[in-house]
Amino acid sequence: MHDSPIMIPQANPGAGYLAQKEAIDAAVQRALASGWYILGKEGEAFEQEFAAWLGATRAIGCANGTDALALILRGLGIGEGATVATVSHTAVATVAAIEMVGATPLLLDIDPDTYTMDPDELAAVLEDPPPGLPPLRAAIAVHLYGQACDLDPMLEACGRAGVALIEDCAQCHGATLHGRKLGTLGTAAAFSLYPTKNLGALGDGGVLATDDFELADRIAAIRQYGWKERYVSSLVGVNSRLDEIQAAILRVKLTALDAGNARRRAIAAAFDAALAGGPLAPPMRREDAEHVFHQYVLRGPRRAEVMARLKAQGIGTGIHYPVPVHLQPAYKGRVALGPAGCAETTRAAEEVFSLPIYPELSDAQVERICAALRGLAE
Ligand SMILES: *Cc1c(COP(=O)(O)O)cnc(C)c1O
User: Fold this and answer.
1) Is any atom of ligand 1 closer than 6 Å to the C-beta of 116?
2) Rounded to whole angstroms, how far apart are CA atoms 138 and 86?
3) pTM score, two decimals?
4) Whose CA is nearest to atom 2 of ligand 1?
5) In which region does residue 285 sit, left (phi positive, over 0), alpha (psi from -120 to 50) or beta (all else)?
6) Which CATH code of 3.40.640.10, 3.40.50.2300, 3.40.50.300, 3.30.565.10 fits the domain covering 16-255?
7) Best of 67, 194, 321 to mutate for ligand 1, by most ligand atoms within 8 A of CB?
8) For 339-356, what is the mean pLDDT?
9) Ligand 1 atom closest to residue 205's alpha carbon, by position in its atom list
10) What average pLDDT does the structure give for the chain?
11) Taken in order 83, 194, 196, 269, is the CA torsion positive or negative?
């Protein structure tokens, strides 16, 4: 038997911890020693530092990215009796958040080159809503894999219809469109801080951002039992808080985010070069937008074979996402689809796969992946 090569995992959140171990350990010790574990100084400092980094007026920490979306919907008064349009080609969390607040999801198709919402279909359902659904009150734009949606026509269509555009920024911390950071362009934005995201806690976490002071105040109350003052629930609330230990860790991680994104882009450029002339095309980049490569996604008809060849060379791959939301057992036949019937979504789910891409990949590991990609052309 010959030795199999050491596996390069598709994701490796432990490497992100080790890269900043001393500073993270010190931050955890500080939070532990403070004697205050929920909604204290670390959380407040993280919210301020994140808002400043993003260029938003307010940031509010919460328990996870799903809750960040749900809190925005609740803050906008969107729940039962409202429809919210989004895509089926996303983490199921986007759709789960809509149903969590009692609203009805409407799932639209994607543009097959960028895997993000088809803005024409959004404009069509805003103008001519599908029969039998409650009124459309919001759209959730998912900036998938680290790249902006075709946001301009979506903002215009939502503005014309008077509905909110919420950005799902769970995969795009630091990405830009026309030089402006994603998460500052819609009514409000939700960020997941799950360990594998570009900004990841060492546990669950989420943060949302908005420039609307009143909305921010409502959401800050809703995240803790609807309290504006202790023990007085002025609004109907939930419990969705970011704890002090995660906040302290995230303050350290935030200092490495821009450099981490730059490293992801450099790795992506190396992959692009290795793919040149081969059977698989590099991922499409939107014009006047900066991609932060949460995932580096390729597409081809013989996916299983390509993934197996890479695995034999010690390269882990993943599929984001193998089954679109509208075909999942819990949603199939029950969830409303737009006029396109999510045909491109269904096709993409059968063909996409993701390479390892994270800042801690060594140059040697990147070169190993590039060599394997060059080998696909043979
Ligand atoms: C990760 C993710 C979420 C959910 O975040 P959690 O922190 O896991 O709740 C939502 N939307 C997208 C697009 C995601 O990738």
Assistant:
1) no
2) 9
3) 0.97
4) 170
5) beta
6) 3.40.640.10
7) 194
8) 97
9) 7
10) 97
11) positive
Which ligand 1 atom is nearest residue 144's CA?
13
CB of 105 closer than 6 A to ligand 1?
A: no
Own/partner long-range contacts of 126-131 (Cβ < 8 Å, ≥24 apart): 126/85, 126/157, 126/158, 126/160, 126/161, 126/163, 127/161, 129/83, 130/106, 130/336, 130/338, 130/339
- Contacts of residue 54, defined as CB under 8 A and 6 or more positions apart, other chains included, come to 181, 183, 184, 209
Any catalytic annotation for residue 181?
no
> What pLDDT score does 2 carry?
54
In the chain, CATH 3.40.640.10 sits at 16-255
Per-residue pLDDT of 290-336, as tens digits, reads 999 999 999 998 999 999 999 999 999 999 999 999 999 999 999 99
Distances (CA, A) of 285 to 3, 55, 61: 38, 24, 31
CB 283 within 8 A of CB 341: no
Domain 256-375 is of which CATH architecture? Alpha-Beta Complex (3.90)
CA of 92 relative to ligand 1 center, distance in Å: 8
Banded model confidence at residue 1, pLDDT cuts 50, 70, 90: very low
Count Cα atoms within 13 angstroms, Cβ side, for 103: 30
Give the per-residue pLDDT at 201. 98
Closest by alpha carbon to 289, among 130, 199, 175?
175
Question: Is residue 59 over pLDDT 50?
Answer: yes
- Residue whose Cα lies nearest atom 6 of ligand 1: it is 65
Where in the sequence of the chain do the CATH 3.90.1150.10 domains occur? 256-375
Q: Which residue has the tokens 């981490």?
A: 260
